[in-house]
Amino acid sequence: MLKRLHNLISPHAAKPPVAEQRAAVLAGQHITYTLKRSARRRSIGLRINDKGLTVSMPLRASERWLNSVLQDKANWVLEKLEGWQTRKAQVLSMCDGEFIPYLGEQLTLRVQRSVFAAPACQYGDTLRVSVQDEGDAKNIEQRVSEWYRQQAGLLFAARVAHYAVLLNVAPRTIKLSTAKTQWGSCNARGTVRLNLQLIKFPLHLIDYVVVHELAHLREMNHSADFWKVVAGVCPDYVKRRRELKAVSLS
Questions:
Q1: Helix/strand/coil (H, E, C) string of 49-86?
Q2: 0.70 cut: is pTM over it?
Q3: pLDDT bucket at 85, cuts 50 / 70 / 90
Q4: Looking at domain 99-245, which of 3.40.50.1820, 3.40.190.10, 3.30.2010.10, 3.30.300.130 is its CATH number?
Q5: How far apart are alpha carbons 202 and 246 in whole angstroms?
Q6: How far is CA 6 from each of CA 2, 10, 13, 14, 17, rounded to the nearest angstrom?
Q7: Most Cβ neighbours (<10 Å): which of 18, 111, 147, 217?
């Protein structure tokens, strides 16, 4: 009986995807990527993040199919890889004099030594952080992150309240998100999630994401009717969407 039950279990279920490091020439540029083969996959998928390009493909997919997909997506792959490289280069050093993005503007980070650490506080175009050790970048980063979360929580709640009235919807909960691939989301239960990173961008882009997600409480899809709802309070949504895509998280 135990042997029969064991045979009913798929032999592939417990096996992780086989991974290998590969190289390719895309649009004249040499790149490296991680290739993962899995018996569960039925198509070839590409994912790009801070670790680079990962290609997932069916276990027995042909090299010709793989090469065809890579060449078809060559420009997209190079664009996204460049975006991640730029993002890495822009990682904040979290030291005195660093520029902190906030609502499309730049705040100057001022780090001062203090026996009593205090929350970060904005004074005009300056963000002041008091810490016991001015060289403790991790602690400074934590203070700045806490300030971002506080500002985002307050601002996002206010923008949702404003547009909920205009769209005649009633979201139940607003949550901050740290998703790597979405600026926002909304489910049928009325939970709206907005990406914390939005606090760094101009208000008109934040408003677009807010309107987009609230519109899903009227149309839980991306149909023509959905975009009519968005256009009702955000007539230039196409321009804003295009601008936001230029700084896509993915």
A1: ECCEEEEEEECCCCHHHHHHHHHHCHHHHHHHHHHHHH
A2: no
A3: low
A4: 3.30.2010.10
A5: 14
A6: 6, 9, 12, 12, 21
A7: 111
Token pair in block for residue 112: 């001062």
Contacts of 181 (CB under 8 A, 6+ apart): 249, 250
What's residue 183's pLDDT?
92
Kindly state the helix (H) or strand (E) to which residue 191 belongs, with its residue range.
Answer: strand 191-195
Instruction: Please answer whether residues 183 and 244 qualify as being in contact, where contact means their C-beta atoms are separated by less than 8 angstroms.
Output: yes
User: How does the average pLDDT of the chain come out, rounded?
Assistant: 84
Residue type, 115: V
CB 77 within 8 A of CB 31: yes
